[in-house]
Amino acid sequence: MSTPNLDVLEPPKVGATLQALRQAQALSLDELSRRAGVSKSMLSQIERNQANPTVAVVWRLANALRVEMSELLGAERPAAPAIDRVAAHSIPSMSSPDGLCQLRILGPIDLAGQFEWYQLTVGAGGALESAAHEPGSREHLSLLSGSLEITAGGSSQTLLCGETARYAVDGPHAIRNLSGQQAVALLVVLHP
Questions:
Q1: How many domains are contained in the chain?
Q2: Is 30 part of any domain?
Q3: 69-120: per-residue pLDDT in tens?
Q4: What is the residue-averaged pLDDT of the chain?
Q5: Cβ neighbours of residue 100 closer than 8 Å, sequence gap 6 or more
Q6: CATH number (domain holding residue 60)
Q7: Is the pLDDT of residue 185 over 90?
Q8: Pairwise CA distance, residues 101 & 63, whole Å
Q9: Strand residue runs (E) in 70-163
C-alpha cells in the first residue's frame, strides 16, 4: 500500500467560497464577523487565501452563513439520505462556564437562527441566563425530569416534570434549577 506524499497535500482553500457565500447573502465583513465571532481581519485573510481557518472557525462561519461545513470547504453536497442518523458522540454541545448547564444541539446547523432545539441539562443550583434575542423570538421549554424556574418578561414560574412553558425571549430571561436534583428539558427556540 502506498503512502500519500504529505508534502503535496494542502488544506482546502475556502477563501473564494467564503466570499461568494457572504456576498450572496449580502453580508459585509463586519456583519459576518459579528455573527460568527471571528475577527474582521481574520475573515479578510481567509477570503484572500492568506490564512487557513481551524475547524472551529469553519464551524462558526458555516453556522453564521447557515450552510453545511462541507459546502464552505468546497465539497459537493451529496444527496440527502432517507434517514440521517447522527451518533450520540457527534451531537455538539455547549456548557456554561461553571459546568452546571449543558446544551446538546439537537437541530441541524442549517436551521440555526430560525428554529433551534436543544436538550438542556441543568445541575442543582445551575442557571442558564440569557440576554435578549431579536424581537418576536420565543422559547418553548418542556421539562422531562426535575423542576426549573423560568424568568421572562418580569415574571417567574416554576415548571414541573411533564409541563411545558412558552415565553417571549426578546428581553433578558433565565432558566434556573433551584432544587437539589438535576433537571432535564427540551428547549426549542423560534426566531421570527
A1: 2
A2: yes
A3: 888 887 655 566 788 888 888 888 899 888 999 999 998 877 777 889 999 9
A4: 87
A5: 122, 123, 124, 125, 126, 127, 177
A6: 1.10.260.40
A7: yes
A8: 22
A9: 93-95, 101-105, 115-122, 127-130, 138-145, 147-152, 155-160
Which burial class, exposed, middle or buried, applies to 42 when counting CB atoms under 10 A from its CB (0-12, 13-18, 19+)? middle
Please tell me the least confidently modeled range out of 21-30, 50-59, 79-88. Answer: 79-88
Residues 109 and 38 in one domain: no
Domain of 97 in residue numbering reads as 91-190
State which H helix or E strand residue 62 sits in. helix 55-65
Based on the fold, state whether residues 169 and 134 are members of the same structural domain. yes
End-to-end alpha carbon distance in the chain: 54
* Separation of alpha carbons 155 and 131, rounded Å: 15
Q: Look up the CATH number of the domain holding residue 157.
A: 2.60.120.10
The answer as to whether 111 is a domain residue is yes
Q: Tell me, what amino acid is at 81?
A: P
Cell representation of residue 71: 459546502
Residue 148 CA to chain centroid, in angstroms?
Answer: 22
CA R_g for the chain: 20
Q: Has residue 80 been placed in a domain?
A: no
Residues 102 and 184 in one domain: yes
pLDDT digits (tens, 9 = 90+) for 117-151: 999 999 999 999 999 999 999 999 999 999 999 99
